[in-house]
Design goal:
With about 290 residues, this protein is α/β, with parallel strands linked by helices. It has two domains: about 130 residues, Rossmann fold (3-Layer(aba) Sandwich), CATH 3.40.50.10860; about 130 residues, NAD(P)-binding Rossmann-like Domain (Rossmann fold, 3-Layer(aba) Sandwich). It contains eleven helices and 14 strands. The strands form three sheets. Strands 2-1-3-5-6-4 form a six-stranded mixed β-sheet, sandwiched between helices. The longest helix is centred in the last third of the chain and has 16 residues. The chain is globular and about 50 Å long. The mean pLDDT is about 90.
Length: about 290
């Protein structure tokens, strides 16, 4: 829980919402509801598709009904501006993926994507590496979480490339270890970790591969924050080239488990959450 004064939880939220657009195929309700039932809680979790112009109305509903929940693409940065309080990580990233109403009826925003990404790195590499050179693809809320996570790594540097150069530059100015570059090949040069923080992997075929795996250094690890059954096309192509690669399943579960802890003050059954995702489902971004 955040150390921000006044950020203590109110009574357990009666309902949890995932706010995003689109969210119809989100897997978060599946594993969150499994964890809620296992914990003996009557609270239930549902996805709510909110177009950008309707976000203010959704926030008003959250306040009026003292709801908690998650935020996903494309609302993480915008949602942060509606919060009364931000945890240090949400403040640093200026992006919120987890929220609740505190005992003072204030809307509190947090960012559990940072911890989720650290868990993904440890799951794939065994530990957070020293002197990592990270090629970061994308410049949205998920990318901000990667910048905040790697900021705490010893000797890490990040080369960020996104389709909107202004967003990449704006993010880079907030983190001393991050540099915006003009092209994907420049970002990939000398990379030891390549992170896809875009929603591109939610597509199919070659359109779901954000960069050519032939441009990735042979000893680099590839982390696709998108998760889908039987690997994403990007992960599949990286493995076929002999690279270490993983999708966002570990991050998906860990950010969700950390969010659960924020809402209720105790840890959920992570193994059960992973088990709930064992049945076939569509692609999803690991941040919700």
């Amino acid at each position: 829980m955040s150390s921000i004064p006044g950020s203590s939880r109110a009574p357990y939220p009666r309902r949890l919402l995932l706010l995003g657009h689109p969210v119809a195929h989100s897997l978060s309700p599946r594993f969150q509801n499994a964890a809620l039932e296992a914990a003996g809680l009557t609270t239930r979790y549902a996805a709510l598709d909110v177009i950008p112009s309707a976000l203010a109305g959704a926030v008003a509903t959250v306040r009026e009904n003292a709801l908690g929940g998650n935020v996903t693409i494309p609302h993480k940065s915008a949602f942060a501006t509606y919060c009364d309080l931000l945890t240090p990580l949400a403040e640093r990233t200026q992006a919120v993926n987890t929220f609740w109403i505190n005992d003072r009826q204030q809307l509190v925003g947090d960012n559990t994507d940072v911890g989720g990404f650290d868990a993904l790195v440890r799951g794939v590499l065994g530990a957070v590496p020293n002197d990592a050179r990270v090629a970061l693809l994308g410049a949205g809320g998920a990318a901000a979480a990667i910048c905040a996570a790697t900021e705490r790594w010893m000797g890490a540097s990040v080369a960020i490339w996104g389709r909107t150069a202004d967003r990449s530059r704006a993010l880079a100015t907030r983190f001393a270890h991050v540099t915006a570059v003009a092209s994907a090949p420049l970002a990939l040069r000398d990379a030891t970790i390549v992170v896809n923080a875009t929603p591109i992997g939610m597509g199919t075929g070659s359109e779901a591969i954000p960069v050519s795996v032939g441009d990735i250094p042979p000893r680099a690890a590839v982390l696709d924050l998108v998760y889908r059954r039987a690997e994403t096309p990007f992960v599949h192509a990286a493995i076929a080239r002999g690279l270490r690669a993983a999708d966002g399943l570990i991050m998906l579960v860990e950010q969700g488990a950390l969010a659960f802890e924020r809402w209720f003050g105790f840890a959920p059954d992570r193994a059960l959450m992973r088990q709930a995702l064992a049945t076939p489902g569509p692609a999803q971004h690991a941040s919700a």
